[in-house]
Amino acid sequence: MDRQEVAREIIAQDWLPRYTGMPVEEFGDYILLTNFKNYVDAFAERFDCEIKGLDRPMQAASNGEGLTIINFGIGTANAATIMDLLVARMPKGVLFLGKCGGLKASTEIGHFILPIAAIRGEGTSNDYFPPEVPALPSFKLHKFVSEKIVDRGLEYRTGVVYTTNRRLWEHDEEFKERLRRLTAIAIDMETATLFIVGHHNQIPRGALLLVSDRPMTPEGIKTMESDTQVTADWADVHLEIGIDAMTDIGRDGETIKHFTF
């Protein structure tokens, strides 16, 4: 490890507890990332563990058995930040449990998506690699997740997700036409950044996305009411799949990072 990497790790070891309120040694080998505090609440209730960082930008909880969940907030800046700070712990696997907008007729609300790649439309990831470098998950992690979905008799889709920094684009017809030409299956605000920064930091990573809206049509645009319904119907199983997949990886002791970066 060169001097620059050592300095970076020292900063991360100081800032990870600063952002989350959790000491580095309490983080597990396997990490669930989410945008939603209610996922952290449900995790803490299931494992009867304390939520740290209620007064910090990010909240975290660990079950004492090697699994930690972190609510890192929304957007690519926060996604890059948490994947950088996790070098303080260098987890064996990170799974993002996020929501996305379905862009295809085949992506119904409540469907799960395991992205095979993400289009880097956000720009944040350009600070880590040139635009030509694809944003990819770790295949073996997605293998575990897909098995857990199938075990429950649920459907999931695979495809390419478009990641953007824009939150309000639903009435921009030029942008929507570009999305159609790119043939992405869904759109979100974090996945490409998490994949790229994970690659940069040599952290195995994946994403299980829940389709929460269909924003290409006016009637499909997310509202507080519609999102509340999606959360009520699907959040529990979304979290359970993530917990089961990451727990099994840890129990089986299978290495996700199976080659040298």
- What share of residues is helical? 25-40%
Q: Determine Rg (CA atoms, Å).
A: 17 Å
Strand order of the largest sheet: 4-7-6-5-8
Report how far apart the termini are: 14 Å
Mean pLDDT: 91
CATH topology: Rossmann fold
> Which structural class do you get from the secondary structure elements?
alpha/beta
Largest sheet: 5 strands, mixed, barrel
Our count of helices gives 7
Instruction: Give the tally of structural domains.
Output: 1
Approximate strand percentage: 15-25%
The low-confidence runs, each spanning 5 or more residues with pLDDT under 50, are none
The CATH architecture can be given as: 3-Layer(aba) Sandwich
CATH superfamily: Nucleoside phosphorylase domain
Secondary-structure element pattern, one letter each: HEHEEHEEHEHEHEH
Q: Judging from the principal axes of the Cα atoms, what is the shape?
A: globular
Specify the CATH class: Alpha Beta
Number of E-state strands? 8
Describe the structure concisely for a colleague.
This protein is α/β, with parallel strands linked by helices and 261 residues long. It has helices at residues 3-20, 37-47, 76-85, 139-151, 173-182, 191-200, 224-252, and strands spanning 30-34, 59-62, 67-71, 93-102, 112-120, 156-163, 186-188, 205-213.
